[in-house]
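Our consortium's second objective concerns turning raw sequence data into structural hypotheses that experimental partners can test. To show how far this objective has progressed, the report includes one record in full. It was chosen at random from the queue rather than selected for favorable results. The single chain below, 173 residues long, was entered without modification.
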Amino acid sequence: TFSSRLSELLAKTQSECFAWALLPNHLHLLLRSNRVKLGVLMRRLLTGYAVRFNLRHSRAGHLFQNRYKSLVCEEEPYFLELVRYIHLNPLRAGIVSTLERLDTYPWSGHAVILGNGHLDGQNVQEVLSRFEGPIPVARRRYRAFLQGGVGQGRRDDLVGRGRPRGHESSTGS
């Protein structure tokens, strides 16, 4: 699966994932690449997955339409807004109908943060540390933060904020 491939590469490259959502026609990732450049990580992730997918489904050709887009996230408030934006994607796309269903949706890091799923390499503690308190309290605060973003709809203001990749920093999306 895609999440297995992502987990495997996060461990091999000592990279961290803070947020992710896999949808039928695209995906969102908030990553920190520590040991390898983001481009290397993404090429290994997307190409490796496409090869396995094509073999499993007896098909050939491209699986992903375009090169991935990456932005550098350096501002603290932007980090949390990206986490919320990414994790609310399945709800906004209509893949899940309620926030309660998103809480257990297996193709998003939101369920992992709430303790309802698992992805090796997802840095749950880094996200929860922004909500202070013991883990159960931080999880409730995180969930309330996500709830506050439900009515915002699509966040065009988040697209393009930050600097385009190439102005090297450790956190990318």
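The partners drew two points from this record. The helical segments are 2-13, 38-56, 76-92, 99-102, 109-113, 124-128, 135-149. Residues 38-56 form the longest helix (19 residues). Both points have been shared with the crystallography group to help prioritize constructs.
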